[in-house]
Amino acid sequence: MGGDQWKKAVTDAWDEMADTYDAYVGTQADYYRTQVIGPGLLAACGKVRGQRVLDLGCGQGYFARLLAGAGATVIGVDISERQIAHARRREAEHPLGIEYFALDAAKIDQEWPPSTFDLITSCIAFQDMPNPFRVMESVKILLKPRGRVVLLVEHQMNGTPLREWERDESGRKIALRVDRYFNTGPRETTWTLNSGDTSRTFRFPSWNRTLEEWSTVFAQAGFLIAQLTEPRPTEKQVEQIPDLDDCSRIPYFLIFDLVPRGSG
Ligand SMILES: C[S@@+](CC[C@H](N)C(=O)[O-])C[C@H]1O[C@@H](n2cnc3c(N)ncnc32)[C@H](O)[C@@H]1O
Asked: Could you tell me if the CB of 124 is within 6 A of ligand 1?
């Protein structure tokens, strides 16, 4: 799939998914998000009060709202107009001062002056982008000299072409079979989202990348990895929500804390 075809496929898929996704996120039923992704990424960002933050692939604004709630001045961008419409509606209902724009993350350097942001974030969106190197080049221009980039992506251990939980008779997860870790490139991801009484299955394009490939993208774009985190639930969280057990055993998510090379 060429760049324009990819862009159209991603935009169409997320436009189509946006209403169900917004309702699903709104239910707070996604415990991976509420217990691991959101708190893990916010903790990795550190103190954000008073910072100007750009959130890439913001969707309906889930993480932008967490940032604003922690005192940041936030702009969210997403390639899907429909996701942005939901984000703006939520902002109108509960104002936090967040601005949202429908934009391709690969082109953000054309939208703001250089050195505008203290922090650039992304919550589980970079794995849907075909050219993260190009995005990081734009990010580098918009970042203030001592700025940081904090990105959460799906861990490759959660997206390999062969990935299947072995279960016992009661359905309990025994062990994860993972294979073809190095088979990277485009893939189709399938998600079933439950919101209230409705359950719908969606397909959208995303991309498998090994840790080595991610680190190469960031190095070539001129960034150093300051910290790498594999967020996971605590024992107490697993006691409270037993279904979180799987991602306490295998990393499902990965957070990169990046600084421009030579900024220290
Ligand atoms: C899994 S959703 C995550 C949304 C949101 N960050 C959240 O945590 O709910 C991935 C989002 O990335 C967006 N996206 C994918 N490619 C993009 C691009 N090139 N530029 C901007 N947004 C993009 C999609 O439209 C989608 O809303």
From this structure: yes
By the 8 A CB rule, do 51 and 57 touch? no
- Return the ligand 1 atom nearest residue 38 CA: 8
In the block, tokens 């990965």 appear at 254
Structure confidence by residue, pLDDT tens digits, 111-130: 999 999 999 999 999 999 99
Q: Is 91 in the pocket of ligand 1 (CB under 6 A)?
A: no
The number of folded domains in the chain is 1
CATH number at 220 reads: 3.40.50.150
Amino acid at 194: N
pTM of the complete model: 0.96
Q: Quote the CA–CA distance of 233 and 216 in Å, as a whole number.
A: 28
Measure CA of the first residue to CA of the last residue in the chain; give whole Å: 39
Residue 225: domain span: 3-260
Report how far ligand 1's centroid is from the alpha carbon of 170 (Å): 36
